[in-house]
Amino acid sequence: MFGEAWTGSRIQEQVRMLCDTIGPRWSGTDAEWQTIEHIEKTLQGYGLDRVDVEEFEFTSWTWSKAEARCSVEGREGGFSLDILPFIRCPSFHMEAPVVDVGFGSQREIDAAGSLNGVVALVALAHEPFTTPVPPAYRLRQIAAAGAAAAIVVDPKSGGRREYHSAQDARDPNFTEPPLPCVAATREDAARIRRSPSCRVHLDVRTEAPVVKSANVHAVLEGDRWPAEDLVLGGHHDTVFGTPGGNDNSSGTIAVLETARVLSQLRASCGQRPGRSIHFVTYAAEEQGFHGARQFVDRHYAGDHRPRLAFNLDELSAGAMKGIVLGFPHLRSLVQEQL
């Protein structure tokens, strides 16, 4: 089995298809549907017991305009900021003073004074030597203090800013952003901090269309406990403008390669898994885990639950020893369920 994983590897072929040929695949777009069709065809070619494309509709999000310009009292001109709206940011147009709230801790918010109607400048990174608080929850604190919007400083250098979320889709009570947010570069943020009495003009235009997407779901049935499920999944969508080599072509390809090797083991040796294995690539993870939620609602809404579910995401971020070796505290859980 391990020999086939190495000698018969189709990883580079899949990387070329997903990253080079298809490229960015925001859920609900033509590129994502091209991805869905490719994954379906690939899994069908492995001779699995069942391959289904499970369609659903959801409210997506897109943007068409994101402009920001700063002005400083007593200085002519001003300077523009290179910004990206946060995912699910609403349309907004405003001009307001900028107040630096550091990392957005409650202590720093209180020290900043009144934030009513201002644009808060806040670092995405965690405050050193403190208990980490996820950015979305710090942004919620800033909104509760009265800020009208936030400019969030990306921690990467070199003029980089990326898409982020101001909500926590894992929390059913926190599915919408608490205030409009845009991401800015570290370099632009440093310029704002060097400019006392800075005001910013922000103009962001977004839309929230209802679109169709789909998970791809394949099954390799077990021969001893076929009614007991193991789920191996990873999302196939990306954020805007990136081919998603790491996030998450790596996870998608791992699902496909595992399905390939295990199906060939059955074909060549007649060896089936004891329990049924469900291979899934999820849609719309970047927009709030819609695909994963749809999969659970469709297959596990009642009393039936999988024995174990693995979610594969960003597997090429660095050296990994595997779940059991890399995370020894999970060893007993994995062994008990398998």
UniProtKB/TrEMBL annotation:
SUPFAM superfamilies in the record: Zn-dependent exopeptidases (SSF53187)
Keyword GTP-binding set for record: no
Intracellular or extracellular location(s): Endoplasmic reticulum; Golgi apparatus; Lysosome; Secreted
Major site of localization recorded for this protein: endoplasmic reticulum
InterPro entries according to UniProt: CPQ, Peptidase_M28
Stored Pfam families: Peptidase_M28
Region named Disordered: 159-178
CC annotations in GO: endoplasmic reticulum; extracellular region; Golgi apparatus; lysosome
PANTHER family in UniProt: CARBOXYPEPTIDASE Q, PROTEASE FAMILY M28 PLASMA GLUTAMATE CARBOXYPEPTIDASE-RELATED
Oligomeric form and interacting partners: Homodimer. The monomeric form is inactive while the homodimer is active.
Name this polypeptide is given: Carboxypeptidase Q
Protein source organism: marine metagenome
